[in-house]
Amino acid sequence: MKNPPELGMDHLTMLDLSPPDFVSVAGEAGFDVVGLRVLAATPDEEPWPMHPDGPMLAETLRRMDETGVSVLDVEVVRLRPDTTRDSYAELLESGAKLGARYITVNGDDPDHGRAAETFAALVADAKPYGLRPLMEAIPYTEVSDLTAAVRIAEGSDGGGILLDSLHFRRFGASLEVLRDLDRDLLACVQLCDGPLEVPQDLPRPKSLPRGQSTDGTDLQLESRAMRQLPGDGELPLKEFLAALPPELPVSLEAPVISLRETLSDNEFARRAYGSLSNVVREARRW
């Protein structure tokens, strides 16, 4: 395969691992890049202490140097009605020290006009740090579909969008939409597998890593803990990737609680890498 894309693993896949340990496990498995959870995604979640001048970030940098793994993105900035620069200032500093390229952004503001203004301000604030914010559409957030995410990104001076194969299926977009997207908005893509339809009445685990909530809808629980590795489900992943520029980095975001309970950290990561690389290779051939 000529010029294969970078292959990464997003932190949600193994959120129970601290950032430095996650980097080490990802490197041992063969991943080129990682996404790191620098800010908690929800109020229930306990954040890892990734302060710009803290010991955990310093150790993460040491492991990156040791393994050769780099940071693709840091997450997550949630756009709320009251989001200001103070809400994400520390993430900008941490992301810059980690050498990250992108910031994952989710939308929790029902006023899309205000969300667009906040996103544009984030884009401007992030530029001096060498970071590019990417708006991710998630069907159970206020920015719940690709149309809204694109509109918000287009209203900024340089922001982009982040595509996730599970969310893309769950908000019902078509592959034709991907082919028509402005390529300048695309930076990377997250991949996992799952059933074609939303699973119903999922069993509730006793707990999730870092205190993530087990409440909410089946859609939320599937996303947080019950995805599938690429190739294990029914999503048209080869077609999904084939509709996108082949050079885009592809990052695995696949928390699979059932496998995490039966495999060691390294066993799971190696299996995850094999699954991701196989699907990417097949998509290039397809």
TrEMBL record:
Keywords: Isomerase. It holds the Pfam family AP_endonuc_2. Residues 26-244 form the Xylose isomerase-like TIM barrel domain. One of its GO terms (molecular function) is isomerase activity. Residues 199-219 are annotated as: Disordered. This is TIM barrel protein. InterPro entries: IolE/XylAMocC-like (IPR050312), Xyl_isomerase-like_sf (IPR036237), Xyl_isomerase-like_TIM-brl (IPR013022). The keyword Isomerase applies. It comes from Rubrobacter radiotolerans (Arthrobacter radiotolerans).
